Amino acid sequence: MIFGDRGMLTAGELRALHPVLREALLKLAGTDLQALSPGKHEWDGERVFLLLQEMETAPKAEKKLESHRRYLDIQWLIEGEERIGYTRKSASHAVCEDELANKDYALYDDPADEMELTMKPGTFAIFFPEDLHRPGVCGEAPARIKKAVVKVDLELLAN
């Protein structure tokens, strides 16, 4: 997992990232995300695409941890505040719903070792397949958020 703020990414930090991730972050930073409508926006067919989401956050108990196998997630908050739970996947994490083959996600029962990220506008988190993450969690009370989720096919990182 990589967590950052678009304003804190230095040229050196960007150079240290895989070129595909660097390009995706730069494209996110250079896109007028406020002007996009909710839904899927193709950047490179099914290899790289953006999902623009508007949703209501919810209490942690109403959200499940998830992981992906084909795509990594770059989650970029545009409006509001969101909490995202995070932990590394291990054998002790029990899958409660496996849709990896059909829809590229699996859901997990709650672990004891989960940490929490606080997302504010302009912050981003990159989640790899071994990163369980619980997006859409509220702080004090549910609130409306707008976020961009860029899906990057992991095969692009192998080159």
TrEMBL record:
InterPro entries: NanQ/TabA/YiaL, NanQ/TabA/YiaL_sf
Source species taxonomy: Bacteria, Bacillati, Bacillota, Bacilli, Bacillales
Gene3D superfamilies, per the entry: YhcH/YjgK/YiaL
Organism from which the protein derives: Cohnella boryungensis
NCBIfam families in alphabetical order: YhcH/YjgK/YiaL family protein (TIGR00022)
Listed name of the protein: YhcH/YjgK/YiaL family protein
